[in-house]
Write the structure tokens for this entry.
Amino acid sequence: MKVFFGLMVIVLLFAGSAGCSRTPKQAEGSASLINNNSNILYANDMSSFNEIINSGQPVLVDFYADWCAPCKMVAPILEQVASDMKGEIKILKVNVDKNRDAATKYGIRSIPTLMLFKNGEIRWQGVGVMQADQIKQIVKTKG
């Protein structure tokens, strides 16, 4: 009975997460600007991911999933960071369900995971929700 109940809970959780809101539909195999007022991009494949992180400008990468509640908490924080640091940083969002190659390459095991890149090199990484001021300080010191 406990096993049956456990399986039912898993099925209900999966069914519930399938109905979660999705991000704006992006063309497969592209990186595109989400909000014209910020520097937030999506990378749906490795070529666009590599192109963006190899920039001379610091790039903060947010590995996330649509179904992840803490990831949803990070989104407005990153919007604030993008606004406050416009021209100083790019923010790249990578959906681990759509770009599994990037998640695998960087050993992403927990989400949200933030990684700071400059010239293609990892300068910093952290897991979990952080406040905007903390992120900005990390970018200024490590970027």
